[in-house]
Input
Amino acid sequence: MDYLSEIEGKQAHDPMFLEKMKESSSSSSSSCLCVPGPVIVGAGPSGLATAACLKEKGVPSVILERSNCIASLWQLKTYDRLRLHLPKQFCELPLMGFPTGFPTYPSKQQFVDYLEAYARKFDIKPRFNETVSQAEYDPTLGFWRVTSVGVKGKEMEYVCRWLVVATGENAEAMMPEMEGMGEFSGDIRHTSLYKSGEEFRGKRVLVVGCGNSGMEVCLDLCNHNARPSLVVRDTVHVLPQEMLGTSTFGLSMWLLRWFPLRLVDRFLLIVSWLMLGDTARFGLARPHLGPLQLKNLSGKTPVLDVGTLAKIKSGDIKVRPSIKSLKRHAVEFVNGTTENFDAIILATGYKSNVPSWLKEKVMFSEKDGYPRRPFPNGWKGEYGLYAVGFTKRGLLGTSMDAIRIAEDIQRCWKEEAKHRLAFTNSLLHQSSSL
Output
């Protein structure tokens, strides 16, 4: 299918279209490229999976990536000891599994190697160092107009029939505001800038946030002979990574095939209590809702313990309440206590950045940058707009989205090809009868 021909056809028969294109080219110094298939924004696992599924169905695509590599979050913004929290069979992208020699929980580098091999296999070549500054549907054209900015400030405009948002749930680090942040003399950094506890050896470090990242950073600090404390601001479910000789996640998925969610939650909590004890005794009170029910309702993921809880029990990691304010060398907590620290690590998560560049208010919420419709219905919007990787269900949700999107675009691709063929045949018939 040749969308350049379609646009040329519109130019020839639609004066308004022609004026629109003239106005655009005269008011902007950007180059323009007409893309025959979808433009995918983001070259992480979500973008790669969608491009591979499309290619398998014969639909070309263009991926725009603001960084200089694929999976930039994994390559540039994760700590060294990171491993997949779920077994590899739940983290595979469509059409290609992990190498058989990989362990159950692949390391960060192994996962990056897998993604690079995935891109090579499907000949996926993103356009790197292109930051999408704006994407907007143009009703006059009937196409999406996507503007990107390169490293030297050069603008490029892509005109496409379909737009796939694959920037994901972790596009920007969330930095909380705390009283006295400017006064604190020590190092304050987000986990996206944390690599290893080696540089904090012997130091008193406060980790803010008790999700999987916060727990693992504390463990890493312990292993490098730092003295970490963990701020626990809310209730949290801590589950063993494995139960009864299998992964907790895999066991949960199997049990849900046979039993209702609340019964599975009760089972998980009983086994966790037997294996880990009463976590509330150590400052880790559990929510009233079960781990799976809470995940479904809020997207909050339970912590899968990889050894941190034992360090908390032994006293190597101290649990602290919420922060009231920061001072020059110390932190004051809401319970009135004050303690000295050399550094603060913010394990406060990430957020979507979609509202900053996508000029669309129907599919995506301006508040949090997520699709308004909950999983599994948030992957498709209007006018050829799609979302992949916003399911709060990790790589499993990403794969489900990518497969659905490729199938839907392929259907549109085939239908429009039929219409174009019928139109061409009609013209040929008319010319031959003259």
